[in-house]
Amino acid sequence: MASHRRPKQPSRARVTVLTTAAAAAVALSSQAANAAPSEKPSKDEVKAKVDKLYQEAEQATEKYNGAKEKQDKLQKEISTLQDNVARGQEELNKLRDGLGSMASAQYRTGGLDPSLQLFLSADPDDYLDKASTLDQLSGQQVEALKKIQEKQRDLAQQRAEASDKLKDLSSTRTELGKKKKEVQGKLSSAQKLLNSLTAAEKAALAEEEARASRDSERQVLSGGGGSGSTDTGSAGGSVSASGRAGAAFSAAQSKIGTPYVYGATGPSSFDCSGLTRWAYAQAGVGLPRMSQDQANAGTRIYSVNQLQVGDLVFFFNDIHHVGLYAGNGQVLHAPRTGTVVRYESMNTIGGPFMFGVRV
Predict the structure, then answer these.
(1) Which residues have CB under 8 Å from 91's CB, separation 6+?
(2) Fewer Cβ neighbours under 10 Å: the N or C end of the chain?
């Protein structure tokens, strides 16, 4: 007959642990059910984040522009130095050949002068230091030796300078690559945010920008800025613009609708300082590449009421954005990636107006 054993009962501690775990699971499930679903950022919130990323991208763009300009300058300087070294080496070779010819002639007429023989087999600097031997040379030979010594020193200096610049160029290229990646990273993040919007939200944002641009254009035209005038203030009268500022402003107006591309200087695309530099170049004025450097291109004007059409206007504490004053409190500029050259109110740039510059 089979024996029947009573099932072993779980310990009291095990029951307590299981009960506690079950209770916790029920509580978490209840919290998850009752918690409000995570809310998608609104169109305006996305726009604020995107605008901030674009500002950061523009800051990086101006640093990229500075590194690019330095790279271009170094490449030109290195090329010039290398050309000079090549020409100098040719001249040195000719001088040596000439001295060799003198030595040959001297040998044919009575044997090679020991002092000249010493020079041809050793460093001329060391030789010339032995002043006691100079009187053994003819005046023509002394002059040739001095020229060779001078040319050798020049070449050594130019080679050293070229070597230093090549090292500087290498580090500048590294910096340029970092800034390019930084700009691209900011723009990529901004694009991801924009992609999170619905088609209707994107259309609404585009319409808001278009409407603001149209309003700015009306303000410019009502102040006479559209016809090349000089505005005496946001609410004041205007007088006819002329000279370089007027010519630069007219050139910039001809590029309205041209796309913004970071690092671009025209004529088919621009970034902010690229546009101002190109516009003034059409008026015969050379401006530096970076906005921070353009800020030193003329007389600073701190009152908006004293700005004139065509004056450079700078924004943000680090002066990373620049445009052309268009009159009636408006600016003509290349705003950021995804936009085109357009008019915009100075109040909606996104950063404080710092000062203007009359070139």
Answers:
(1) 151
(2) N
